[in-house]
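dumping this here so i dont lose it
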């Protein structure tokens, strides 16, 4: 799809066709949305679709998860006119942090951290990442926010897969993603 082309009819998820499949092997996500972010209307519609379920909800801050969640999270924060908090992989913040170990989608053990001075008790935070595959990364972010007294106002990602971890998150938190119901099985099977 041409990066300047905008379809005459734009239904939810039309921009998913901009994503490219993984050609680099098992240490990478199965689908790459970075081309979607290059498409001005695609990015705007993706963010609008992610935020639609949260219209009227109390959200004090948006937090994006390292690293691709920074793109959608910052775009969502700008749209909502809220602050943006980066939840980072360990070792990147030079301030006091709290850390949380987790296992990512490729079964690698990692540690995530967040600065301790950004979340005050009761602060309502919308967590954003590009993808929730196994749920390990998002669960670690949830744990960090809640450990500091914040409230998870919602979880938003391009796709939340129907994995065990994805289901756990969807059962406990208000969630939003961009994959139409009819396409969800294909995304769950990485097709």
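and the seq i came up w/
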């Amino acid at each position: 799809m041409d990066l300047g082309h905008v379809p005459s009819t734009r239904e939810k998820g039309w921009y998913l066709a901009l994503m490219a499949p993984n050609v680099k092997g098992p240490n990478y996500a199965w689908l790459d949305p970075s081309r979607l972010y290059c498409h001005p209307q695609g990015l705007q519609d993706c963010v609008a679709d992610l935020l639609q379920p949260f219209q009227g909800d109390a959200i004090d801050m948006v937090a994006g998860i390292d690293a691709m969640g920074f793109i959608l999270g910052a775009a969502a924060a700008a749209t909502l006119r809220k602050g943006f908090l980066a939840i980072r992989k360990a070792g990147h913040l030079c301030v006091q942090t709290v850390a949380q170990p987790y296992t990512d989608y490729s079964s690698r053990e990692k540690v995530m951290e967040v600065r301790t001075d950004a979340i005050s008790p009761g602060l309502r935070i919308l967590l954003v990442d590009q993808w929730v595959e196994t749920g390990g990364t998002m669960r670690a972010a949830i744990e960090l926010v809640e450990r500091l007294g914040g409230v998870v106002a919602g979880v938003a990602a391009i796709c939340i897969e129907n994995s065990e971890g994805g289901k756990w998150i969807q059962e406990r938190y208000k969630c939003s993603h961009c994959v139409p119901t009819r396409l969800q099985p294909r995304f769950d099977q990485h097709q």
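The chain has one domain: 32-189.
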